[in-house]
Specification:
This protein is about 65% helix and about 10% strand. By secondary structure, the protein is of the alpha+beta class. α1 runs parallel beside α9, α7 runs antiparallel to α9 and α11 crosses α12. The longest helix has about 30 residues.
Length: about 375
């Protein structure tokens, strides 16, 4: 592949990455580990695409080409395992949804990257992975495949994790995660088989784009901690429900506040507090139908939106939710009890209330229930 062809292909890939990056900015979940890992993968891939061009300035030793060629190849070899390590961390978090558990992989991966990095430095003297001759021409070294195998091995470990834990992954995410490895793997095989062809990074861009469409883009409307809808998506959904309401068919909403959440955080730590929120979201989902809408409203508050037009049916559901939490508290040995305060109402079509006014009505009812729970202690 000529330098010009490589340059043009990498420029298109860079532009594609920039578009993805810009669409990923200003997200509600920008502090989540998933977001930071994905954005770092975009940045590392963009840097590698630039370095890939520099690493192809073979020949003409009397020009600046040897400097570009030297640093381009050196940095390419240093960064390759970092990108695949980030992907392994991303996959691990997608499967287990546990930041602390995923962070435990940091040290082993840093060790692998460090060992590989030392070998890259020694390669400059011994030509293990590659060497550049006096005519400024790049050649593969005797341990070239060892370096490649580390990158492929990390991606393979991620693929095995996906396959083994496929039941823990939402079906809509499984394909994107499983497919990620295939384009870079094909590019790697082509690069090994046909000297001079370099399509691995361009195929990585394709994989990152698929992940963006099917996972990252979806998570814009998802609360990163609990996996339910976020407040932004709730507001849009409520507006649709109000607009679609008729005299014969309306909807209901429930605002739920987790009792004594501050006490759980203060007494047992934020990790246990996060765990309580995750358990709450799962318990709520277990009490509802698959098409019912659950969102985290903020902090320890959740919203449920339902296609229920009758107040008695709504009250029956509230009773079922309370019963679900009571059964959980009896059956699970936790150092705290999960209790709820709820405000709920059927949307009155004839009132022509705005979303904001309807939410205020439910908010008042929730605080009345919260006060009643405090007085009943």
């Amino acid at each position: 592949m000529s330098l010009i062809h490589n340059l043009v292909l990498n420029i298109y890939s860079l532009l594609f990455l920039i578009i993805i990056y810009r669409h990923s900015l200003n997200r509600d979940d920008n502090k989540s580990l998933q977001y930071r890992l994905y954005m770092t993968m975009l940045q590392i891939t963009a840097l590698l695409l630039v370095l890939d061009v520099f690493s192809r300035f073979d020949g003409r030793p009397e020009t600046i080409y040897p400097i570009l060629n030297y640093w381009g190849n050196c940095m390419m070899f240093l960064l390759n395992p970092i990108l695949s390590s980030l992907w392994l961390l991303y996959v691990h978090f997608q499967i287990f949804q546990d930041e602390e558990k995923t962070r435990r992989l940091f040290n082993p991966l840093i060790a692998v990257i460090a060992i590989h990095g030392v070998m890259v430095v020694l390669t400059q003297f011994f030509g293990w992975f590659y060497y550049i001759d006096s005519d400024n021409v790049y050649h593969r070294g005797p341990l070239f495949l060892f370096s490649v195998s580390i990158t492929i091995g990390l991606i393979l470990v991620a693929f095995i994790l996906i396959t083994v834990n496929r039941k823990k992954i939402e079906k809509k995410y499984y394909f994107s995660l499983a497919f990620f490895a295939f384009p870079p793997f094909v590019g790697t095989i082509l690069q090994i088989a046909f000297y001079g062809i370099s399509l691995v990074l361009n195929f990585v861009v394709l994989s990152l784009f698929i992940v963006f469409l099917n996972i990252q883009n979806h998570s814009m409307n998802t609360d990163y901690l609990t996996g339910v809808n976020n407040r932004k998506n709730l507001e849009a959904f409520l507006k649709k429900k109000v607009k679609a309401s008729t005299e014969d068919k309306t909807f209901s909403a429930i605002l739920i506040d987790l009792n004594n959440f501050k006490s759980i955080n203060d007494t047992f730590g934020h990790y246990m507090g996060d765990n309580a929120l995750q358990i709450t979201s799962k318990l709520l989902a277990s009490c509802l139908r698959s098409n019912d809408f659950i969102a985290r409203f903020g902090g320890d508050e959740f919203y449920i939106v339902l296609d229920i037009s009758d107040k008695k049916d709504l009250e029956a559901l509230v009773g079922r939710i309370n019963g679900c939490f009571e059964n959980y508290n009896k059956s699970v040995n936790q150092p705290y009890k999960l209790g709820l305060s709820m405000g709920y109402a059927v949307y009155d079509y004839h009132s022509h209330m705005s979303v904001e006014d309807f939410q205020k009505q439910i908010d008042i009812l929730m605080y009345k229930d919260k006060q009643s729970n405090k007085e009943g202690k």
